[in-house]
Design a protein that fits this description.
By secondary structure, the chain is mostly helical. The protein has helices spanning about 1-50, 55-85, 90-120, 125-155, 180-205, 215-220, 235-250, 275-285, 305-330, 330-355, 360-390, 400-410, 410-430, 435-489, and strands at about 220-225, 255, 265-270, 295-300. Strands 2-3-1-4 form a four-stranded antiparallel β-sheet. The longest helix has about 55 residues, at about 435-489.
Length: about 500
Amino acid sequence: AVSTSLLAGAIGLAIVCVFMIFVYLLTGLASSIALVIYTGLILVLLNAYDITLTLPGIAGIILGIGMAVDANVIIFARVKEELSAGTSVHAALKAGFHKAMSAILDGNITTLIAAAVLWLRGSGPVKGFAQTLALGIVVSMFTALVVTRLIVYAFYAVGIRSPKVYGRVQKPRKPIDFLGKRKVFFIISILLCISGFVGMGVNQARGVGAMNYSLDFAGGTSTTVTFDREYTLEEIDSRMIPELEDITGDNNIQVQTVKGSNQVVFKTQTLDLAKREAFETYMQDEFGVTEELMTENISATVSSEMRTDAAVAVIIATICMLLYIWFRFKDIRFATSAVLALVHDVLVVLAFYVIARVSVGNTFIACMLTIVGYSINATIVIFDRIREELKVKEAGEDLKDLVNRCITQTLTRSIYTSLTTFIMVAVLYVLGVSSIKEFALPLMAGIICGAYSSVCITGALWYVMKTRGAAKKAAVSADGANVLPKQKR
């Protein structure tokens, strides 16, 4: 699983680099070089600090690459805006890095807070995820704000100064009326969130369990098979596992070879008598096993204490992120909207697990933690643009128009960032083994959901809370004005 993931990461990174060069030209080349340096630094630091590379750890690296791409997209989107406004190349580069700074810092620091809490409060796979995520965030900020800047200015210093190679000039996009459709978006989101709980009830009524809990969560059956010769893990994966997945109904079979013997241990979900007999018949018919198979029930590897630790860590991290956003944006409505969108994304991915019957195991914890880290970062970028535009808001300009304009201005960034991260995970899904696929599939759903909530939900939530608060203040003021004349009479 680890070797497959690393190969998928390399291929995904190559595709992302080609995409960045195609979209952002010379600055895209600079960001691609910075991304390669980022990946190299991560691998060196993982080795230097002897961090164990688990599946949740790989998830943290993928999220880190996604955030590194995101930082570059924010910078170069700003550069293109400045060039489109007729600014010189040098001034556009300077303004691009300066204006992108707050969004990059706020987004990364918010996710870093979550990583720190998960590291301190979590255990097992949660701690492994937090370690690689925290490392990835620090390195991604360094490469985006220092390495990318040095490379871009080096290109400029050697005489590459034509505006055409620093980004295609784009015409101002007409604002899209996202807020006008907010009721439709809210209804869709509520239905998506509820569908998970409805699905749990339906699954429970069918007698198949609310969720498809794997060996890690529910325990299962350990079957020891003695072959007539020694088999390698590669042979077992290619020749036995596909058939055994069909026989047992478990797509996440764990295999161990016993050193110095011909024995192989297969760990699966709990098998009833019929499945055990089918397992034994398959081994006898296909591989000539003559010795009786030894089976025993085994307990869950993800303890209730580990699950509780993960849940508590996520709740504390969410509260800390809310407080930080409130402090930075000086408005509790920004923080509340961001956290509500985060909860929305988690519930939608939970619904995907329930409806698609994706196996719930160690990868479930990794996936949910990745969604928490990824979702909040996308929201911060839009809120940063709203905060910036509010400072220069013209008298008489409607707040709804301002929010629509901000969401439209950051729309390209939202699409590109989601697309590049989606590419990384999609390659992981195509090349990965069963356990990797069970992590990548819901994560792809989470990335799509995160892009949707950032664009369609967060700005609308903030606008609704802002306008209702203003309406209440206006109503209170009006009541006070009506009372004063009566008191004078």
